[in-house]
Amino acid sequence: MHQKLPLVLPQKLADGFILRSATQSDSHEIADLNSHIHENEGLGVWLEDAMSSGHPTMDASQVFVITTPEGHIVSTLAFIPQTWRYEDILIPVGQLEAIATHEHYRRHGFSRKLIETVHHLSYKQGNLIHAVVGIPTYYRRYGYDYALDFRGRRSIHLDNVPMGIETPPFTIRLATETDIPHLIRIQNHHNQTYLVTNYCDETRWKFDISGHSEGSDAQVRIFCIIDDQSQIVGYYRTFPALWDGTLVIIEFAMQVTIPYRLAMLAVLNAMRDRYTDEDGNCQLAQISLEIGIHHAVYDTLPEILDPAPRPSAWYIHLPDEARLIQYIKPVLEGRLEQSNMCGLTATTKINLASHELTIHIKHGEISLIALARLVLGDEANATFPPYVFNQLVMGYRSLEEIQYAYADCLSDTETTMLLNNLFPKKASFVIPLG
């Protein structure tokens, strides 16, 4: 689904600075800059991995830099092509990472220039969504809005976990590459409950199991859950190291027929054993379940879960709303067919603050989707503040919730019904892929 971004650089900037794609020979300098700026050595290790030939979707050309006239790299942005699934439709997506500018070269607009350049190249390449997890409020200035669930978190203190399970039905072991077909099958089943999820093929799974260097910020450990018939019935994904006695689980999936409560209790006891030394001292004090806003585990272990803190979210940028809606048209038409608006014929104009989106529906089929420059004074069936429409398309907020939060988000009666049917609120689960 992904090709490499076309090489249309270098580009000369003011005062002799140069914007260009990185090369393999830049990897150490880029890694050092990001490790310094973000105070995170693991990010530098990940960058060197990502700029090597072993990464599934990117290489050095997917990192963009700005250099001084003398050739020193002072600003960077890494672009990670990947695929997300919107219900059953695969969508090309670009994730922004490693955005850093040396402190002596701030206030030159370098981050803006890099982001706008990547947006342009990515759009030409066909990516329909840009995504980033980062500084609160910062990315709104580049056309992003909080518009997709990101992890969510519930915590379990090990002191609250029962010490053992009679005749434990499950055992735990590290995943290997031979397990990948089973892991893909289980993930696909698990993800059916969500609107937007990662699509991970065999190459992606292989990289996560054995491709990351030790100490990389993107390194994970994937554990298989094995039943008493030696069959893989589930898996979970963790970061490799404890953080102040806390182990972070970022994904947990089981076969549909497997009881989550027994499986999770078995996992918790296995974790206790894994981090207990010969003298009986356990380094593990807490498990942080960062496995989504909603998850079956939360429903099966309410007595040992801490209250949920307020979750963060992905920042989402839609470079062309009409293009995305055209891409997911089969999903939208399916929703209409199952609603009380089956067979609808209507033309809906949506004011998106700087441009207008028109959706023409004929006998329940979407026949025309178009974007046009907004003409002040033109009447619209619905009006959204800048970028807020992203929340509706991604299922992050219902129209009612958006209109409660934004007094200037308006829609007429029929359009309200239409938007509710086309874009219902639905949980998503997307992991950042390094």
Summarize the structure.
With 434 residues, this protein is of the alpha+beta class. It is built from 12 helices and 20 strands.
Describe this structure in words.
With 434 residues, this protein is of the alpha+beta class. It has three domains: 11-132, Gcn5-related N-acetyltransferase (GNAT) (Aminopeptidase, 3-Layer(aba) Sandwich), CATH 3.40.630; 154-304, Aminopeptidase, CATH 3.40.630; 320-422, SCP2 sterol-binding domain (Nonspecific Lipid-transfer Protein, Chain A, 2-Layer Sandwich), CATH 3.30.1050.10. It is built from twelve helices and 20 strands. It has helices at residues 27-37, 41-50, 110-125, 180-191, 202-210, 260-274, 296-300, 321-327, 329-337, 389-393, 399-405, 413-422, and strands spanning 11-12, 18-21, 63-67, 73-86, 89-101, 129-132, 145-149, 154-157, 171-174, 196-198, 221-226, 232-238, 246-254, 286-289, 313-317, 346-351, 355-362, 365-373, 382-383, 410-411. The radius of gyration is 23 Å and the shape is globular.
